[in-house]
Amino acid sequence: MPLHLEVPPVKDPELRRSPSPPPSPSRAASVTYNDKYVVVYDFSDIDYETATKEFTALLQNLEATGLHVEVRPGYEQTILLFVKAPSALLGNRVYKLRVRDWLYGITQTRPPGNKYTIVPAWYEAEDILSMDHLVNWPQSMGGAGITPGIGQWKNVKAIFPMHNDKVNQALLRSLSKKLLLSIDDLDKIRDLFGSKVAFYFAFGQSYSAFLIFPAVTGLVSWLWLPKYSIVYTILTVIWCTVFLEYWKVREVDLSIRWRVRGVNKTKNNRPQYKYEQVIVDQYGRTIHYSPKWKQISRQLLQLPFMAIATVALGLMISAVFAVEILISDSYDGPSNLYLDYLPTVLLAVLIPYISSYLETVAKWLTNFENHRTADNHEMSLTQKIFVLSIITNYLPILLTAFVYVPFGDQIFPWLEGHIVQFAPSIGNRLTEMPFRLDSDRLRHEVIALTVTGQLSSFFEENILPLIKHKMSGWYREYRRAYTKDTVLISMVTDDADEAEFLAQRRNEATLDHYNVQDDIAELVLQFGYLALFSSAWPLIPLGFLINNWVELRSDFAKICIEHQRPAPYRAEGIGPWIVSLEILVWLGSISSAAIVHLFSTDGVLSGGWSTLPLTIFISEHILLALTAVARVIFQRFGSEELRRERSEQYARRLSILDEIEEHRRDGEHIGVRERERRKSLLIAGNESFWTKQLEDGASAAAGMKLIMLARKWEQSNGELKKKQ
Ligand SMILES: [Ca+2]
């Protein structure tokens, strides 16, 4: 077997593949994370027969792929399948993935070797990605085809790689000592969690570094310049544009550095993707065809959804807003103190309720849109939720700035008049006070919303999940100790030498899946506050700068502690968030201009000729927006010439691809000798955990025993109950 070794640019010795580190006397130190995966199988909802059948199928699929499986009990009625890839299999997959990348034009040099070549990974996440493919990819592509929660595998709760705690902690420690993340830190995050997650940190890092400039100008403006300063505003608008253009370049740089440029076009179909036909075109390429017009027209459905959501949320927020002002400005009846808090309480109760309903609709809509790749699906859903959060976050400020302050003196007397007419009992309590215009109100609104927004999102993101996780842990312990529920781990005792390892993995199995889009959305929303409203309160950038220092570190800790280790998927950037940022920059230029125009000299613009330029300005920008939408749609259709060129390229590649991607699964065609060799390799390894169920059928027997134990216990318990 020819063995081609490339020089691996490994930065951290902890991040090497299993055979590389020298044997260490301590067992904990010798655990490798690059070649393992955990599959969580939950059989609490199904009967004995179904459970054994499903479990056997699961195991057979994994073993047929050439993976070694150790079975251990999990919490409640779950079985943890610990999957380990033989290094020959994994190294070969890593090699094939590199060849695939080269064929798709992601990398420029052809990796030397043939279909038997085994290479060491350059970093841990590269191995784990291939590990993920072995477990998750369809059988036709040489994987085990385990897709958690879908179809045949609906009782597979999760598949995940294990956290490399030592490296996690070391990196977190070094990050918390630094002011800014270096390129080296970003590389390390990529080595751990893959480029998709690393791009979030890269974006957060660039954004925070850029924030230093408006933080300084903002402080200067706050100290020495007049309120709603025009100089500060112009600088901020320019800064926004410059930052965005910088990030576009930076993203390309990083995607080349991380060898992921163009990786989005190589993504597989998601299992839920529905296609109408399978076509083999003249270049020999299999296409799962679903008409473009159908997809685009389905995606256009989000426009009416967004319109309705905007109107619904908008009406509610405006109503609460009007009540709030009526009460604070002119209501003179009894129990004024309680009434003061009424609108806030109303908003606090109503908004989460309506938002969660709208989110359900958004989820349904995204499923309906039938995206081909998991990336597109995830992104489309996050973008919808992002628009909803934009409305709830920005609308109160927009109402204050552009409705209440300029038109309040007309709207509120009119509103009061109507209340007197239709509800005299309330109306009579409204005093005939002349409308007091409070131009500081905008500033206060901006301060209150940005500060509480950052604080509450920190709490929701970091503190609340920790509390929840702790509580469910306590509850589990309580049930285990005091109730007669079937809990597997109380029937089976762990081997002493694995107890700690198993405790950690059981904990990881209960954690949530991590979605990096949520974190990006949070930063983009923050950027929007800055772009749209910082002219009202120039200390915003300084506050955000401090917030983000904590944010990036606490997000890293959050991934390590509160979430399962994310599968190290690849991405070539932050994707459509660029478009969101562009829109926010554009909105920011309008909003800042209008705020300065309305507030800077204390003179409030009121009707007449002076609003004319503003109207022209806005209508012109609506036109721009339409052009942008059209551009996006046309880009979706793509250029015919480009497609043809790519197809010809593909035909050229196909001969090599055929040789490389043999659609056979490793476990099915290896001989008895190779099987024995792999066993002896496992025994020779330093991890006794992976040698407990080496004999053929041992893992299956262990799993069956666990399922039977649980069911027997339930049976005898049920009979006991009947007898009593
Ligand atoms: Ca975050």
Question: What's the short story on this structure?
Answer:
This protein is 64% helix and 5% strand.
Keywords, separated by commas or semicolons:
64% helix, 2 domains, disordered N terminus, disordered C terminus, mainly alpha, binds calcium ion, 724 residues, single chain, two-stranded antiparallel ribbon, 6 strands, 5% strand, 4-stranded antiparallel beta sheet
Could you describe the 3D structure shown?
It is a multi-pass membrane protein. Pfam families: Anoctamin (PF04547), Anoctamin_N (PF20877). Keywords: Membrane, Transmembrane, Transmembrane helix. The protein has 724 residues and is mainly alpha-helical. It folds into two domains: 13-162 and 665-723, no CATH class; 184-606, no CATH class. It has 22 helices and six strands. The strands form two sheets. The chain has a four-stranded antiparallel sheet, with helices on both faces. Helix 6 packs antiparallel against helix 16, helix 8 runs antiparallel to helix 10 (336-369) and helix 11 (374-422) crosses helix 15 (516-533). Mean pLDDT is 80; it is low at 1-29, 602-609 and 719-724. The structure holds calcium ion. Calcium ion binds at residues 461, 519, 522, 551, 555.
